[in-house]
């Protein structure tokens, strides 16, 4: 996939943020890879890939090398030089490396095994950091990291991952019914979740339907179909109209708020193709 001329300025705008954090490749001198949202390293890599930049691009390859340097022997990724390592960090790192076409890399398979080994009884992934205190809702896993881990695992190429994928999907489908904020980080399904956000960078209806649509086992599930039809009702002439975008991305043409996005629509058509 090549970059369309319509989006060449977006690519250059994202590249222009490369030194914002004081280091290179959208990070800090001490390599805090998630600092500076929405122009942190992992997000910028995903924006460029979404815009059609090839995985072999020198900037993406250099950023990937920094990411690999953060991998621990047990497969986890330490995306900050100090502090705890959270499951969400490992899931995001694995997802980005899969998007770069490195899903079969032996080192990434170690990470995939770590994700298998740390899946919780409810089917999700969670940490023990209680930012909002403890309560009955914090006994659940965190939905958004679970969605990202699910996306990474379904890209992994492993033939033995189907049971894990289905368990994660069941957890996420259960949240469609629960709706209330759950998990230590309190991810809920409310009015904000139901707004179409693009590019994919948070727990919202569009990403939820997109990831789950890749699992044949859930396509006939009542909860998935409700979510899909809710997304379908938001389309205009078969196109995805962006309802929410982080303000710092508002100047980019591929994700203008209130306007149809051809790239977002391409993801929607992928959903339709998955549903056959």
Structure report:
By secondary structure, this protein is mostly helical. Helix content is 42%, strand content 0%. The protein has 10 helices and no strands. It has helices spanning 8-15, 41-50, 58-68, 87-99, 106-118, 143-154, 162-178, 205-212, 222-232, 262-275. Helix 4 runs antiparallel to helix 5 and helix 6 (143-154) runs antiparallel to helix 7. The longest helix is centred in the middle third of the chain and has 17 residues, at 162-178. The two termini are 23 Å apart.
The helical percent reads 40-55%
Helices, by number, come to 10
The rough form would be described as globular
Please tell me how large the radius of gyration is. Answer: 18 Å
Number of E strands: 0
Brief characterization of the structure:
By secondary structure, the protein is mainly alpha-helical. The protein has helices at residues 8-15, 41-50, 58-68, 87-99, 106-118, 143-154, 162-178, 205-212, 222-232, 262-275.
């Amino acid at each position: 996939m090549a970059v369309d001329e319509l989006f060449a300025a977006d690519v250059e705008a994202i590249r222009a943020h490369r030194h914002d954090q004081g280091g290179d490749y959208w990070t800090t001198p001490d390599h805090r890879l998630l600092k500076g949202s929405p122009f942190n390293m992992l997000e910028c890599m995903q924006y460029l890939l979404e815009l059609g930049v090839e995985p072999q691009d020198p900037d993406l390859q250099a950023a990937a090398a920094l990411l690999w340097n953060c991998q621990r022997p047990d497969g986890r990724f330490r995306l900050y030089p100090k502090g705890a390592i959270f499951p969400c960090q490992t899931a995001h790192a694995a997802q980005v490396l899969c998007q770069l076409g490195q899903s079969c890399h032996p080192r990434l398979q170690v990470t995939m095994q770590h994700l298998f080994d740390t899946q919780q009884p409810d089917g999700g992934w969670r940490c023990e950091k209680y930012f909002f205190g403890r309560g009955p809702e914090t006994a659940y896993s965190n939905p958004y990291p679970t969605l990202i881990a699910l996306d990474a695992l379904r890209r992994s190429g492993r033939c033995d991952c189907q049971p894990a994928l289905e368990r994660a999907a069941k957890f996420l489908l259960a949240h469609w019914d629960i709706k209330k904020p759950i998990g230590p980080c309190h991810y809920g399904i409310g009015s904000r979740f139901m707004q179409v956000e693009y590019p994919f960078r948070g727990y919202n209806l569009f990403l939820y339907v997109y990831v789950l649509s890749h699992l044949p086992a859930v396509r006939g599930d009542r909860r998935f179909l409700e979510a899909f039809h809710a997304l379908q009702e938001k389309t205009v002439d078969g196109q995805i109209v962006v309802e929410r975008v982080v303000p710092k991305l508002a100047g980019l043409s591929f994700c203008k708020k209130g306007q149809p996005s051809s790239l977002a629509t391409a993801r929607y058509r992928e959903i339709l193709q998955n549903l056959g």
